[in-house]
């Protein structure tokens, strides 16, 4: 009897997401009708994803291999990896790994996943579930921003305005050039995720009017939240 070929993780996940060959055929046929761009776009949609996803999975496997080697298994871990919680973390982890390009973020993703295994996390209640989502949605620039804030909280005390904050950040990182609008968007997104706080909000770019504030006004600072500090623990591992 011929031994059945073992399916790749990408194939299993592809089936789990509901994207089958029929759907691919319909989409491919539609794309082909686009003048001169169609064939190229078709190749990118149909052929490239499998190659890129497999590459990302292979890179993630190497990272995970190193982390697993450092850990001794026990009865609790063995029981946990048979649970629904582990199944959900496992699926979430591999799906996330295929969407992450940056190696450092992928390494952090593996740190979060391994922590979930070691602490036998409840998937539905675990903050690690949030962190897996954060790592997919945050850009590498935002990870740099979070790290900068984490290590420079004293410098950012009473920073007061986005003008001052932006100037300080540009002194720190001169390699990546972003404009004021991008910077503010990234900061607000990180704050909305609960990873940092600006103590009520920084003054916007270009706003210089201090008459609006009375003697009780305290200049806002940029600080890490407790959630942000927990998130940073995985980044700096």
From TrEMBL:
Protein name: DUF4393 domain-containing protein
């Amino acid at each position: 009897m011929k031994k059945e070929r073992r399916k790749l993780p990408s194939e299993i996940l592809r089936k789990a997401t509901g994207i089958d060959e029929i759907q691919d055929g319909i989409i491919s046929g539609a794309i082909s009708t686009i003048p001169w761009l169609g064939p190229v776009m078709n190749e990118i949609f149909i052929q490239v994803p499998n190659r890129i996803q497999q590459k990302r999975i292979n890179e993630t496997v190497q990272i995970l291999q190193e982390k697993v080697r450092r850990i001794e298994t026990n009865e609790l871990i063995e029981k946990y990896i048979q649970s629904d919680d582990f199944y959900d973390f496992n699926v979430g982890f591999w799906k996330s790994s295929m969407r992450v390009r940056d190696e450092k973020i992928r390494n952090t993703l593996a740190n979060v996943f391994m922590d979930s295994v070691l602490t036998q996390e409840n998937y539905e209640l675990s903050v690690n579930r949030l962190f897996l989502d954060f790592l997919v949605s945050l850009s590498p620039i935002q990870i740099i921003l979070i790290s900068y804030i984490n290590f420079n909280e004293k410098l950012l005390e009473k920073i007061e305005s986005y003008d001052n904050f932006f100037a300080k950040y540009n002194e720190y990182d001169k390699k990546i050039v972003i404009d004021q609008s991008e910077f503010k968007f990234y900061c607000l997104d990180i704050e909305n995720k609960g990873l940092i706080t600006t103590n009520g909000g920084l003054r916007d770019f270009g706003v210089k009017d201090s008459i609006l504030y009375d003697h009780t006004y305290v200049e806002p600072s940029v600080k890490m939240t407790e959630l942000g500090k927990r998130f940073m623990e995985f980044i700096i591992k």
